[in-house]
Design brief:
Structural class: alpha+beta
Strand order of the largest sheet: 10-9-8-11-12-6-7-13
Number of strands: 13
Largest sheet: 8 strands, mixed
Number of domains: 3
Distance between the termini: 94 Å
């Protein structure tokens, strides 16, 4: 007769003799099972932002912990809107999305900074979805085939973000002008700057002060990309547009009225820079010590020559350079870029130009 049948509890075996059954792996693939993963108050830690220097794409990654269970969350932000939300059973897997096979810059974020950037990207996604729903239903249906909205809802809940009612504003529309925040402590900023087109990317990595005005940043960018300072330009930021000519866009303000550190503050923050008919994206990669003068940390490929006013003329030049001995192409090269080498880049030359700015 067993001890249980006699009304006694069976004797406990020593821990060393108990069968060690591995706990079942977390199922993080199906979003309907996400609520079962984490219960109770959630702690946010190990927050980072990752980016490639020549790509306008960032990964926001962090560890979510509730009780004894932790998962990694990965939020891919592409062109300012959320593109992917994934969970990882091993938290470190979320922190290594871009590390394998890419030149990646990574910077830590506070939990508040992580929440702020995720929320901003979710808002842009929701607004653009609403705009496509009203103006381009076919595209909206394609965008709605994924379970991203359900993932976004769950992530908002876990991060404690408020619900948001989208407005039909496309992702490329000018942001609504807002009151500029006061300048914060002065710091150095690593900026990744690249032309939106063509491919492969034409990019520079620059070290600048956060208290430089956007007008001063335009001078730095003109030197980095070998352009005339007088060229028409505009910065598109989360606080509206800024340029040398306030007629450049509705609601625009002068670019000497704002500093870099007022419109982008932490790693991962981005804005758009237009010079003539060329569009660039600018992203803060990391914060650093305050430099005495702006400097160039790296780059690839020569900026388009001044004779190339847009992407189309640059591509014509690239095609002509493939057949330099063709008579028509020879004339085109002479017109658009005599002596131009698209692969040329010299960091020391860029630094010399920046040094002359004072």
């Amino acid at each position: 007769m067993s001890p249980v049948s006699r009304g006694r509890k069976p004797a406990k075996r020593p821990k060393s003799q108990r069968s060690l059954r591995p706990s079942p792996p977390l199922d993080v693939a199906r979003v309907e099972r996400w609520p079962k993963l984490l219960h109770g108050p959630i702690e946010l830690s190990d927050c980072v932002v990752q980016g490639q220097v020549d790509q306008d794409l960032v990964v926001l990654a962090a560890k979510l912990t509730a009780g004894k269970r932790s998962v990694g969350v990965e939020v891919v932000v592409n062109d300012r809107e959320v593109d992917v939300i994934d969970l990882h059973a091993v938290p470190e897997d979320a922190l290594a999305v871009l590390r394998n096979g890419f030149e990646v810059t990574e910077a830590p974020l506070t939990p508040e900074e992580f929440r702020s950037q995720v929320e901003a990207a979710l808002v842009v996604r929701a607004d653009s979805d609403r705009w496509y729903e009203d103006h381009a239903p076919a595209i909206f249906r394609l965008r709605s085939e994924s379970d991203l909205p359900e993932r976004a809802t769950r992530l908002r809940h876990w991060l404690g973000l408020p619900e948001y009612e989208p407005v039909p504003r496309s992702a490329v529309a000018d942001p609504l002008p807002l009151v500029l925040p006061p300048p914060g402590p002065v710091t150095g900023m690593w900026l990744a700057v690249a032309l939106e087109e063509p491919e492969p990317a034409i990019w520079r990595r620059l070290l600048v002060r956060s208290d430089v005005t956007l007008a001063g940043l335009h001078r730095i960018l003109a030197a980095a990309f070998d352009r005339e300072e007088q060229q028409d330009h505009r910065f598109e930021t989360a606080y509206g547009g800024f340029g040398a000519d306030i007629q450049g866009g509705e609601g625009d303000r002068l670019d000497d009225e704002a500093t870099l550190g007022q419109v982008v503050t932490v790693p991962g923050h981005r804005m758009v820079y237009e010079a003539g008919m060329w569009e660039h994206w600018i992203r803060v990669e990391r914060l650093a010590a305050v430099p005495e003068v702006a400097g160039c940390l790296g780059g690839e490929r020569a900026a388009p020559p001044s004779e190339c006013e847009n992407v189309q003329s640059y591509e014509l030049l690239m095609e002509a350079l493939r057949h330099p001995y063709d008579e028509e192409d020879e004339d085109l090269i002479e017109e658009l870029g005599p002596g131009f080498d698209p692969e040329w880049f010299d960091k020391e030359v860029v630094d010399e130009r920046l040094a002359r700015l004072g």
